[in-house]
Amino acid sequence: MILPEKTVSRLSEYRRILLDCLSKGQTHIFSHELANLNHITAVQVRRDMMLMGFSSMQRKGYDIKELIGAIGSLIDTPDGLNVAVIGVGNFGKAVTGYFRGKRSKLNIVATFDVDSEKVGRVVGGVKCYHVDNLPKLLKKLKISIGILTVPPEYARSMAEILTDNGVKGILNFTTVPLNMPDHVFLEEYDMITSIEKVAYFVKNHGGGKKSFSKATDASKQ
Amino acid sequence: MILPEKTVSRLSEYRRILLDCLSKGQTHIFSHELANLNHITAVQVRRDMMLMGFSSMQRKGYDIKELIGAIGSLIDTPDGLNVAVIGVGNFGKAVTGYFRGKRSKLNIVATFDVDSEKVGRVVGGVKCYHVDNLPKLLKKLKISIGILTVPPEYARSMAEILTDNGVKGILNFTTVPLNMPDHVFLEEYDMITSIEKVAYFVKNHGGGKKSFSKATDASKQ
DNA sequence: AATTTATTGTTAATTTTAGAACAATTATTG
DNA sequence: CAATAATTGTTCTAAAATTAACAATAAATT
User: Fold this and answer.
1) Rounded CA gap, A199 and B105, in Å?
2) How far apart are CA B161 and CA B114, in angstroms?
3) What is the CATH number of domain A81-191?
4) Low-confidence spans in chain B with pLDDT less than 50
5) What pLDDT sits at residue B104?
6) Partners of A171 in the beta sheet?
7) Helix or strand or coil: residue B44?
8) A96 to chain B: closest CA residue
9) For chain B, what percent of residues have pLDDT higher than 90?
10) What are the tens digits of pLDDT across the range A123-151?
11) From the C1' of C19, which residue's alpha carbon is nearest?
């Protein structure tokens, strides 16, 4: 079963919240609690649960551990996926550090840069290689997802190297919109768009809205 | 006229693309060209133009300069808005540097941190102040938008300080979901959700989709 | 100048997404 | 143990967003 994209995003958000609850010792959660924490309605939570085929203990709420497991079995890949970060500037470092051990099924196994200061060193717990080694290492390390955090002028050429060497999904944080072959899933996020949106609604509403920034679906139509 | 949130996001994306085209000397663009560059359909571009009340020169495409101006007059604030970045780690530095001069109507006027190594120095072109000065400086500098890039444990307290001191919009890059008063526009972005979405569609489609990561609308319902 | 071609603006249809409503179920209370 | 209250699962409805379709227009071609 393929879940709607919006549902996949929400499942990921639910899990983030649930892991947080779990770490605080909470064992069960009601639909309206999860909804409030995620700025959505309880109905939507229940509909998502239904879509997942997940049931609660009536009147006790959802079992948090079970739900985390259920979400994992739907959105994770059993054997995990290997991820590379291309470009170890501030953003690349932030992304790499951010992930550190957060998701067992997604492993950042390498970072790449051109700067000899960085190459060979360990950044955010992950070794940095020279970009020249990309083709070789992408295959050798079986990397299927690439995160692009390079300066704009390198975005397209790096993306090409990625897709030419077996990468099946790209998360593009550069300002350059990419065009990918059909078999590559592309997700792009531009923080300027996020802040311009905030600015627009600050200007026009004087606030009064709540919004979750999601990466734009850049899939082939 | 208040534009739909999705349209606002797209207008911002259009402008990013148009500015790039302009810098390459291009003067006009067809709806299908703009659509391809933004991974959407030409119909959607034309509908957005209609919503904006913007017209092209028939058969010549849209005048890029005019269109940039039209988008600006809709989504920018004439006098500009002041922005602060809270938390000068890798992510905060990335955000600050990323913005440098990119949008004349959005000015990052200050950054804040607790680290005495950073306080008093200029980071990414912007002066860093100690967090203790937040209440005073938020008012003094008339900051209306805050970007949160602090460690998760500080997210809620910082958000509170922001809203208590006149901030009307928050872009939350921490992993902590926030709850804001109704008059504050909140936009949240979690990169883990983005990459989990990529992973899901890599696993299930073997690619074949295109997606733009947008910040989730966290507005009050 | 007539014909063809390309492109837009707009209406109508479709699809996707979210919400309201409510019966069913089970804990809790008296 | 009956009554009450709380919560879910689900269907039906509504709203939002996207796409399809096509007449209108203007450039290009003959």
Assistant:
1) 10
2) 15
3) 3.40.50.720
4) 206-209, 219-221
5) 82
6) A147, A187
7) helix
8) B90
9) 75
10) 889 999 999 999 999 999 999 999 999 99
11) A43
Domain ranges of chain B: 5-73, 81-191
d(CA A192, CA B189): 12
DSSP helix/strand/coil, A67: helix
B95 contacts on A by Cβ (under 8 Å): 191
Query: Which tokens go with B85?
Result: 């970045």
- Structure tokens that stand for A121 in this block: 């060193």
Q: Which residues pair with A108 in a beta bridge?
A: A83
Q: What is the DSSP letter of B115?
A: -
The answer to whether the CB of A191 falls within 8 A of the CB of B192 is no
- Contact call for residues A109 and A84 (beta carbons, < 8 A): yes
Residue B161: phi, psi to the nearest 5? Answer: -60, -40
Asked if B189 and B162 count as a contact pair (C-beta separation under 8 A), the reply is no
Chain B CB within 8 Å of residue A180 CB: yes
> Residues B78-92: pLDDT tens digits?
999 999 999 999 999
Q: Which CATH class is domain B5-73?
A: mainly alpha
Would you say domain A5-75 falls under CATH 1.10.10.10? Answer: yes
The answer to whether B205 and A204 have CB atoms below 8 angstroms apart is no
Interface contact flag, B13 A39, Cβ < 8 Å: no
Residues making up chain B, counted from first to last: 221
Distance CA(A31)–CA(B121), nearest Å, equals 46
B12 CA to D16 C1' distance (Å)? 20
**Cα–Cα distance between A43 and A36 in angstroms, integer?**
11
Q: What is the pLDDT of residue B211?
A: 56
B50: its two tokens: 């209609």
pLDDT single digits (tens) A53-107: 999 887 889 999 999 999 999 999 999 999 999 999 999 999 999 887 788 899 9
* pLDDT of the residue at A209: 45
- Closest residue in B to A93 (Cα) is B90
B29 CA from D26 C1′ (Å): 17
Beta strands of chain B (E only): which ranges? Answer: 28-29, 62-63, 81-86, 106-113, 122-123, 126-130, 143-148, 169-172, 185-189, 210-217
User: Residue A179 — very low, low, confident or very high, per pLDDT cuts 50/70/90?
Assistant: confident
Say yes or no: do domains A5-75 and A81-191 share a fold: no
Tell me how far apart the alpha carbons of residues A190 and B82 are, in angstroms, rounded to a whole number.
19
Give distance CA B60 / C1' D29 (Å). 17
Q: Which alpha helices (DSSP H) does chain B contain, by range?
A: 5-23, 31-37, 42-52, 64-75, 90-99, 134-140, 152-164, 191-205
CA distance linking residue B68 with residue A146, whole number of Å? 32
